[in-house]
Each structure stands twice: as C-alpha cells, then as structure tokens.
Amino acid sequence: MDGIADLGGTPGWGPVHPPRRDEPVFEEPWQGRAFALTSLSGRIAFGGVNLDAFRHALERLDRAAYLDDGYYGRWLNGAELMLTDSAVLAPGAIHARARNLRGEHVEEPPIPEPAVPDYAPSAEGSLRSVDTAPAFAVGERVRTKSMSVPGHTRLPGYARGHTGIVEAVQPAFVLPDTNAHFQSENPQYVYSVRFDSRELWGADAEPFAVTAELFENYLETTS
Predict the structure, then answer these.
(1) What does the alpha-carbon distance between residue 151 and residue 1 come to, in Å, rounded to a whole number?
(2) What are phi and psi of 131, to 5 degrees?
(3) Would you call 16 helix, strand, or coil by DSSP?
(4) Alpha helix (H) ranges present in 102-149?
(5) What is the rounded distance in angstroms from the CA atom of residue 68 to the CA atom of residue 88?
(6) Other beta carbons less than 10 A from residue 16's beta carbon
(7) CA 73, CA 21: separation in Å to the nearest integer?
(8) Interatomic CA distance for residues 155 and 168, integer angstroms
C-alpha cells in the first residue's frame, strides 16, 4: 500500500549509512524483549507465522508510531495492531494497563472474543512449486505495472511504471499481496530485474544499477 513504510527512493532522508561492523543485535535489553514479544504476538494473532501480515501491520501505522519510537518501538506498535485486529486485545487495552501500572486508576476495556483468521499455510516457509512455466526470460525487457495498491504489496512505489532487464528467474514464492490478507498463497515466480537509476529517478540521478526482486504479477511485457 502507499504509506509511510514505502520510503525507498524517496528524497529528503539524507544518505544511507551502513551499520557498524561491531553493531550488536540489540543495542538495549528491551529491544530483545520487543523482538520476542512481537514474534509471539504474531503467532497468537494469526494462529501461526505470517510475515506478510506483520509487514502489513507495520505499514498501517501512523507517522509517529512508525518513525518516532525507533525500529523496535515500531515492532511493538505493530504487535499491538496485530492483536487488536484479531480481537485478542481490545483497542486501548495496552494504554490503559500502562496507566494503571504507573499508579493511575482507569478502567480497562473488557477482553473481547478473539477472531483469529482461519488460515493456514500449505507448507513451511514461502517457497512453493507451480506447474506453469515462467512468463519472462533472462535478458527480456519488462515493465513494472503502474498501480496503486490499497492493501499490501512488495512492489515499491519508486519502481512502478518503469522498464528494466530480467537478470535471473527465481523459484515461485507465496505472493505477499494476498497472503498478508489471509486470502490465498497464490505462488508466483520471482524475477531479479535490473533498473538504471536514471530510468527510476530521471536524467540527473547518479548513474548506478538497482536490482529488485519482483513477483510475476508486478510485471508486463514492453511494447
């Protein structure tokens, strides 16, 4: 979807800084706990692992919840949204509990009846087999579809409506666009597509190549 999470290629954020070589997995102990809580929350909210639904929760956060609380703060905000979506928690339950833990006396909302999606993966992981042949071949020029997606997608905004070259054909994977909404796995081939930076950002862009991993549904032939 078009939202705060689709930051790739957008101007105004400054240069990208690579992580330090000695960067720890978690800078502070609470971040490790946030990681564990979020992983558990997803399993409770979805009845299993669904990374695409977790990503969709993150991209639906507002600006403050996505940016101001840091990376693992964002995860906690996403965990709360997943749990309220599935009615495991009532809206506002965490805020009320936090106030009570600070010594306030506020009424906490009643525990709702959970509505966990009745959806289970057909196999472990995301790799799948399909009976059809790939629609595109290595070396073929393809164009990404110019589409505004109301739900989840892994087609970044900066790549939509642009032309590139297929560098590799990857195996079929579960399509995030449908899996995130518990609709179907809809497995598709994935293509490594190379774009010229000037194709994506105009003639004044610094010249370099960008390779994106794109699902078959995102691509079309060039005329």
Answers:
(1) 5
(2) -85, -20
(3) coil
(4) none
(5) 26
(6) 5
(7) 23
(8) 17
3-class state of residue 119 by DSSP: coil
Name, in order, each residue with C-beta under 8 angstroms of 201's C-beta and a sequence gap of 6 or more.
Answer: 9, 158
- Range in 3-7, 32-36, 58-62, 200-204 the model is least confident about: 3-7
Helix (H) or strand (E) holding 201: helix 197-201
- The closest alpha carbon to 206, from 15, 4, 7, belongs to 15
Q: CA angle at residue 105 from 100 to 108, to 5 degrees?
A: 65
Q: Cβ distance 115 to 178 under 8 Å? A: no
Cβ–Cβ < 8 Å for 75, 35: yes
pTM equals 0.90
Q: Which pair of tokens denotes residue 134?
A: 């790939």
